[in-house]
Write a sequence for this structure.
């Protein structure tokens, strides 16, 4: 499976690889540019030096030529010939000078300049010496000129030639060195660029391979995930099919027996049996649904348990009363063995503990055909745990089956499901619950020799615990557990907010049987409106309703000052569901499906018993005997006909302002004296005028007139509210 | 100096209909309130609330000009701390929602009854703690 972490890291690798390739290409480009610019510099130097070489070469040639010409001139006698050669001499001088000028301009500061500075005096001396020879020739002192030429000019000229020659050589060497270096540089750059280029290409190839491989790996992971999802979905489908069967079985009984109850002519005994079957199957159905809910909560990690002071004896008495009968009906013994001393109270979740024990004992009864079920209760002081060992003499289990037992959705054998029914969830739930309660469920069994399921849970007691040494010490709660009087009679008015017609009817029957009055609304908004309008002694509010749910309605009522009792209906008895009710502002809660005993218990808490009046604890404003109220009411009624007349004539004159005024006033007053219909109609009229829709007004006025007549005909009604 | 001997909560009534003001006054007196002013419009209600600083104020939702909900908005804007009860001849859920949004502490639907008033006083007393 591919986790997002892996996904991220492979993304990182790809990004890093491409970055590296880009970086390499960038370095390559920089190296290339750098080497080109260096070569350029070198070429410039070479070209410069070549020029200088050219100049020096020219200078040397000119100097040598001049010496040769002078040598020729001293050998000549014809003055014209001498003049001609002299012209040549001047031309050579011009060549020398121009080359020298160029060289001087091209010379670099420093070393080159210094070399020139060293050569310069020689050149000057040579020039001067040549000039002297020319002078002597021109003044026709040929022999002197020849003497000077041979003794001084030519040797000096030789030195000049040598000096310039050295300079030439130096420049040539430099040029050669530069050339050599440029060649070497080029070679290095070439090698470097090829190497880096190769690395970049290799890296690119690697990344491509990596990406394509990674993609195929992701694909295969997706395929794997898909397979797993399909497997899970298949398991769920199997489970649902099984569940559907499990739900259908009790439903078949419920529907079938209900139909026989509704149609056939049955005697009381048969009817009673049918009703009992329906009740039993309904409870079984409820159990299945609760199991599924529990398992989904466990899977979602949302299972919470409570820690309440609980008497283990009470729990066991209840277990005995529930399951003892079941066992005996099947012809099995059912006994509880107490290993005293046992703690009088433990801190645990009694509902969940009962659930575990009911499940274990229920299984024991289910899988036992002969013999009986025995619960052994013990206390281990060293780890402060109380244990309940449920022993049966049933079919037993082999080792492999025991392991399978605690897995969700599975039973020891798939055929077990067919033979014995059940959802296969009970043990899994029990184990998880026991773990939540600080303990464990363990199974010891041998095939055909019966099984023992042991649940041990933490007693949760930190302080000194009171111990019980014999059963007589604890009050036998069994006797207290006698049926609550469901025939109690109460007085009071209940508002029921419930959207399901069936539940509306059921609660109505319960309430009327208990002697109280009931008003029904079908959503939270209507509940708020009704709650504000009437004086109810108790509001029963379903938590799940359309338009506005129960929690919001309760919150709203509490916010605007409704302080009378509100009891909410919730689908679950779990802590979080209850907390939701209490957080909204409910005083109490009832679990759906409604347990009749619990319902009566709640009624007795909030309603007064028939005969006594709970709501009378407040001083009632005795309106009938209040002269101020009576006067006001009388005035209102006396003025009512003329008010009606006024509004009718205003309507005929289309004086809409007056119609609006009167209707507004009527709306505000009529309700206070008990004439709500007049208030309603007046408001409608007022709304029409405001919306400038006067068409329905005539009909509304007729209705108003009727209502006014009614009010006048039975004025005493105003006081009966 | 005259000692104030009463510890009754003080209240102002704002309703445009005279008969209703009288009736509300009777009801409130029955549950132990002292009515220190009665006005017939929203603007005056605000003025009286500012000057007399009552413990509670009962405002009719439907007054000409400034409605009860407008009064709530003004009181909210002025940040005036008073236990505000909206009184209405009609209890549409929208009115209730708007009243709560406007900061109302209570909502009473006519006709008045001692039981309804007692509940409001119960909530008022609880709000003091």
């Amino acid at each position: 499976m591919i986790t997002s972490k892996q996904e991220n890291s492979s993304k990182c690798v790809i990004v890093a690889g491409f970055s590296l390739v880009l970086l390499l290409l960038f370095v390559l480009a920089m190296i290339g540019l750098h080497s080109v610019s260096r070569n350029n510099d070198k070429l410039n130097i070479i070209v410069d030096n070549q020029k200088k070489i050219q100049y020096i070469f020219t200078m040397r040639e000119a100097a040598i030529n001049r010496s040769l010409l002078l040598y020729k001139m001293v050998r000549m006698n014809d003055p014209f010939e001498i003049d001609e050669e002299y012209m040549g001499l001047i031309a050579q001088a011009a060549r020398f000078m121009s080359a020298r000028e160029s060289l001087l301009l091209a010379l670099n500061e420093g070393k080159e300049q210094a070399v020139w500075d060293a050569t310069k005096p020689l050149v000057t001396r040579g020039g001067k010496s040549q000039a002297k020879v020319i002078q002597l020739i021109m003044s026709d002192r040929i022999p002197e000129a020849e003497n000077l030429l041979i003794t001084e000019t030519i040797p000096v000229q030789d030195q000049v030639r040598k000096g310039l020659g050295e300079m030439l050589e130096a420049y040539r060497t430099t040029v050669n060195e530069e050339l050599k270096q440029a060649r070497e540089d080029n070679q290095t750059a070439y090698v470097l660029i090829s190497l880096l280029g190769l690395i970049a290409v290799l890296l690119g190839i690697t990344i491509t391979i990596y990406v394509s491989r990674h993609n195929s790996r992701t694909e295969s992971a997706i395929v794997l995930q898909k397979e797993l999802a399909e497997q899970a979905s298949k398991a769920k489908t199997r489970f649902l099919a099984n569940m559907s069967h499990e739900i259908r079985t009790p439903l078949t009984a419920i529907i079938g027996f209900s139909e026989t109850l509704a149609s056939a002519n049955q005697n009381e005994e048969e009817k009673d049996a049918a009703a009992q079957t329906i009740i039993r199957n309904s409870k079984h159905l409820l159990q299945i649904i609760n199991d599924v809910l529990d398992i989904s909560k466990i899977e979602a990690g949302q299972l919470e348990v409570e820690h309440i002071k609980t008497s283990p004896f009470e729990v066991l008495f209840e277990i005995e009363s529930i399951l003892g009968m079941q066992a005996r009906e099947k012809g099995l013994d059912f006994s509880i063995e107490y290993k005293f001393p046992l703690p009088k109270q433990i801190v645990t979740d009694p509902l969940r503990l009962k659930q575990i024990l009911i499940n274990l004992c229920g299984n024991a009864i289910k899988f036992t055909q002969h013999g009986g079920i025995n619960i052994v209760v013990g206390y281990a002081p060293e780890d402060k745990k109380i244990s309940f060992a449920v022993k049966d003499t049933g079919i037993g289990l082999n080792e492999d089956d025991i392991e399978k037992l605690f897995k969700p959705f599975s039973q020891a054998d798939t055929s077990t499901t067919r033979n014995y029914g059940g959802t296969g969830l009970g043990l899994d739930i029990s184990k998880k619950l026991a773990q939540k309660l600080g303990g464990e469920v363990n199974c010891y069994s041998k095939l055909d020799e019966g099984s023992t399921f042991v649940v041990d849970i933490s007693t949760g007691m930190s302080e000194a615990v009171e111990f019980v040494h014999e059963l007589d010490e604890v009050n036998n709660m069994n006797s207290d557990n006698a049926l609550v009087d469901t025939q109690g009679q109460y007085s009071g008015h209940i508002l029921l907010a419930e959207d399901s017609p069936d539940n509306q009817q059921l609660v109505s029957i319960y309430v009327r049987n208990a002697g109280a009055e009931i008003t029904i609304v079908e959503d939270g908004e209507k509940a708020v409106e009704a709650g504000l309008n009437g004086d109810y002694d108790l509001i029963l509010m379903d938590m799940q309703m359309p338009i506005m749910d129960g929690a919001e309605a309760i919150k709203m009522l509490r916010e605007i000052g409704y302080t009378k009792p509100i009891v909410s209906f919730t689908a679950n008895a779990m802590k979080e569901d209850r907390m939701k009710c209490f957080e909204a502002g409910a005083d109490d809660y009832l679990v759906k499906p409604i347990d009749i005993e619990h319902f009566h218990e709640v009624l007795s808490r909030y309603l007064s018993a028939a005969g006594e009046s709970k709501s009378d604890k407040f001083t009632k404003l005795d309106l009938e005997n209040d002269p101020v109220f009576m006067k006001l009411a009388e005035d209102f009624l006396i003025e009512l006909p003329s008010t009606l007349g006024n509004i009718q004539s205003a309507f005929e004159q289309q004086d809409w302002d007056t119609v609006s005024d009167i209707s507004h006033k009527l709306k505000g007053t009529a309700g206070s004296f008990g004439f709500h219909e007049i208030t309603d109609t007046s408001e409608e009229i007022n709304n029409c005028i405001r919306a400038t829709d006067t068409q329905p007004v005539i009909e509304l006025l007729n209705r108003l007139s009727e209502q006014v007549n009614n009010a006048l005909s039975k004025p005493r009604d105003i006081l009966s509210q | 100096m005259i000692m104030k001997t009463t510890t009754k909560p003080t209240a102002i009534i704002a309703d445009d209909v005279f008969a209703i003001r009288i009736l509300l006054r009777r009801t409130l007196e029955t549950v132990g309130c002292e009515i220190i002013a009665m006005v017939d419009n929203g603007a005056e209600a605000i003025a009286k609330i500012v000057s007399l600083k009552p413990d509670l104020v009962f405002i009719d939702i439907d007054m000409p000009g400034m409605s009860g909900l407008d009064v709530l908005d003004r009181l909210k804007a002025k940040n005036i701390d008073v236990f505000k009860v909206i009184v209405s001849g009609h209890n549409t859920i929208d009115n209730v929602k708007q009243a709560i949004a406007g900061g109302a502490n209570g909502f009473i639907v006519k006709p008045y009854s001692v039981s309804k008033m007692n509940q409001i006083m119960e909530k008022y007393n609880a709000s003091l703690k």
Remarks:
- The interface with chain B takes residues 525, 528-529, 532-533, 535, 548, 556, 559-564, 615, 618-621, 626, 628-629, 632, 635-636, 664-665, 667-674, 679, 683, 721 of chain A (CB under 8 Å).
- Residues 37-181 of chain A form a domain with the Four Helix Bundle (Hemerythrin (Met), subunit A) fold (CATH 1.20.120.30).
